[in-house]
Amino acid sequence: MKSNIEEALDTLSQSWMIEPIIRDFILGKKTNVSDFAIKVNDVVFHIPYIGGDDGYVLWKCYWPDCHNCCNRQGRLPLTSNDLITISKHLKYEKASDFVKKETNIATWEERGPSGNPVVMTMINLKRKEDETEANDGTYIRCRFLDEKGYCGLHPSRPGVCYMYPFSSWLENEKGQVRVHATFQFTGDCPGFYFAKSVDEMKNILIEYSKMIYDYTMNSSRTTRENFGYVSM
Q: Pfam families attached here (predicted)?
C-alpha cells in the first residue's frame, strides 16, 4: 500500500519532472543522508546532504506556474499578527468578528526536530467558507487562490504561506534563542532538486531568512499570548 507521500509524488509526477534521486530521498530510500547546517542572518538552515552522491537537496519556487502549496494545504494556522493583518485586509472592524466567521480551532500532532511528537492547537483560517474542524488535515484548495495562481490576500496572507516549504523551530543555545529551519517533504512541491553546492540557493536562503525569523518569533508570541497552545 502506498504512503500518502508516495501518492502525492505520483500525482506531482504527472505534471512535473521529479529527479529520481529526489524521489528516492523523499521516500526514505537514501540512507546515507546527513544534516548540513548553515547560518544565514538570524536563522540556522538545515539542508540535507546525500553522501555517496555527494550533493545537497535544494529548492526553488516555480510560482506562478505552480501553486500546489495553495491547492493542497492541510491547514492554515494563524499567528496573532495574522489575525490583525488579515482581518483588516478583509475589512473587519473587529478582529473578534473575523475570528468568529473566518476561522476554526484545530488540534493536530506533528513531529518535532528530534522526532518527538508535538501536539499543537491553533486558530486556523478557513480554506473554504464552509470548512469545519472535521476538514483539518485534508487537502483543500484555498478559496483565496484565483485561476491565475494569485493570492487574494497578498500581501496580507498568513505567515505560514510565506514560509512554505520550510518549517521552523526555536532552540535555546547558551541562553540565547536561535531560530532553526528545514524543508517540509510532503511530496507536493516540484521545486526540490539535487545540486553539488549550496551556493546555488544562497540568495533564496537570504530572502527567506527574514520571513522565517519573523514568523517563528510571531508564532512563539502567539502561544505566549494564549492564542495557541503547544505541548511537547
A: CxxCxxCC
**Domain residue spans of the chain:** 4-231
Task: Look at 24-38, 121-135, 168-182 and tell me which has the smallest mean pLDDT.
Answer: 168-182
Phi/psi at 115 (nearest 5 deg)? Answer: 90, 0
The CB-based long-range contact list for 19-26 (8 Å cut-off, 24+ gap) reads 19/193, 19/194, 21/50, 21/53, 21/194, 22/57, 22/192, 22/193, 22/194, 25/50, 25/57, 25/185, 26/185, 26/187, 26/192
Neighbours of 84 (CB within 10 A): 15
For residue 216, give the amino acid letter. Answer: T
Cα atoms found within 13 Å of the Cα of residue 184, Cβ hemisphere only: 18
Residue 77 gets which letter from DSSP?
B
- pLDDT tens by residue, 115-147: 778 899 999 999 999 999 899 999 999 999 998
Who's near 166: CB < 8 A, 6+ residues apart? Answer: 181, 182, 183, 184, 208, 212
CA–CA distance, 225 with 215 (Å, rounded to integer)? 15
pLDDT in tens, 190-231: 999 999 999 999 999 999 999 999 999 999 999 999 888 887
